[in-house]
Specification:
Binding site for ATP: 19, 21-23, 139
Structural class: alpha/beta
Region (LID): 138-148
Protein name: Putative adenylate kinase
Number of strands: 11
CATH topology: Rossmann fold
Bound molecules: adenosine-5'-diphosphate
GO molecular function: AMP kinase activity; ATP binding; ATP hydrolysis activity
Helix content: 40-55%
Strand content: 15-25%
Number of helices: 12
EC number: 2.7.4.3
Largest sheet: 6 strands, parallel
CATH class: Alpha Beta
Length: 306
Amino acid sequence: MFHSSFPPFLTIALTGTPGTGKTQVAKLLEAEGYQVLHLTEFICSCKIPVERDDERDCNIVDMDSLEESFFEYQKEKRHDFENKIQNMSLSDDEFIQHTKQPKNLPVLLVESHLAHCLCDLAVVLRSHPAVLKERLDGRGYSEKKVQENVLSEAIDIILCDCFDYCRRVYEIDNSSQKISDTVSCVKELIHALYEDEFLKFRSFVSQMNEKNKCKCKSKKQNISDSNPAQPVVSSGFAAKSRQDVKNISGQDLEDIPLAELAGTISVIEEEGVVVYEGDYDDALDETHPVLMKYIPGKNDWSGLVD
Ligand SMILES: Nc1ncnc2c1ncn2[C@@H]1O[C@H](COP(=O)(O)OP(=O)(O)O)[C@@H](O)[C@H]1O
């Protein structure tokens, strides 16, 4: 019999271009009791090797070393969670109720523009380039650094990156939101995501038991196999605001090979919306990432919860 005594413990990336609000949102969630890892602080406290790139005015982190330390940390967090629920005997419904309390939600939210490289689920905070520029101008960054970040947001660099690493990707556009609304969006999303992963996991376990198949390779892989292949549509700032971005950053997007910047995913513009059509197979073990745009109060979770 396939047996799993513990429900899943998830790590979810809270990622986005600098200035999109990751740190502030994560701090507010932490204050409510959610488990948050601020990756920049973690990199310092674990003494992960970092090289300075003076030309681009940024730090380059040794990702192998970061991965190693992060997976150890994640393992500890999962063990803590398993120890906590070890002696509770809750039905599935009771367990889901239990997780409604932030401190009981078995989710580690990892906040950083690198977080999606370490997690297989991602929430991407997005801000319109004009809004982002205003926020970054107030930070005392060099003009070049502001331009680079604004451009990166305009052409969905972080979002595209997420498709290389994550099996489920969600974006929240906070350009015209109050920060408290963004926090509510993230909360609703991570609870719904947990419930969905939990139900899929349970259904997987019972299917395995029914069929009495012990040969499953990995729980995670099988759960993600049930995601349907879908074309992915982004908020497409690049397409909507080519001229805006040119005005703001002084760079002409016409000169930039978008598909090249977007890595393995080719970018096609269709009627003002950027459609990503990708051959994700190599990067994602034949699974297809699912991108959902979060619209406050309007999301239909039926596509998410089976
Ligand atoms: N809806 C919003 N969501 C997130 N941040 C917002 C929002 N509106 C304004 N902000 C402001 O944008 C800034 C984002 O900064 P920060 O959280 O440090 O971004 P990051 O960590 O992504 O670099 C903060 O000053 C925050 O108060």
